[in-house]
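lol forgot to send this yesterday, sorry. struct tokens for the thing we talked abt
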């Protein structure tokens, strides 16, 4: 099967659903997500569709600030590394092209910034 680039909301939905299926089953990050998302997975997935649609397709359907809900998560660098590993593998399995590469770069930047900010707030509270 020839892989195509991310091109529409259907592709974003496939990416997000496939990625979060892996997240939910993952031994390291799954428990954190599953505990935080009890009864709210559909709502979270919808938000992620809109987020990535806005970022990658420049169709502005997401508004809000993505960081605050993550501020107090019990995570460290290993969690972000695993998140990136799952995300990158998911993108590479499903897509190839400019937007697929852009998705990985944006995810890496987001993971770096979230980790930095979480550590910053943790240190402020000591």
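and heres what i got for the seq, position by position
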């Amino acid at each position: 099967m020839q892989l195509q680039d991310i091109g529409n909301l259907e592709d974003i939905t496939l990416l997000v659903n496939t990625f979060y299926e892996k997240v939910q089953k993952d031994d390291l990050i799954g428990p954190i997500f599953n505990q935080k998302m009890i009864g709210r997975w559909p709502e979270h997935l919808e938000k992620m569709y809109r987020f990535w649609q806005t970022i990658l397709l420049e169709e502005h359907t997401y508004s809000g600030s993505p960081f605050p809900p993550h501020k107090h998560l019990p995570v460290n660098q290993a969690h972000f590394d695993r998140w990136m590993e799952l995300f990158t593998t998911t993108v590479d399995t499903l897509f190839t092209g400019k937007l697929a590469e852009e998705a990985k770069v944006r995810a890496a930047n987001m993971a770096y910034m979230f980790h930095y900010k979480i550590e910053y707030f943790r240190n402020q509270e000591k």
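The chain is about 70% helix and 0% strand. anyway ping me if u want another try
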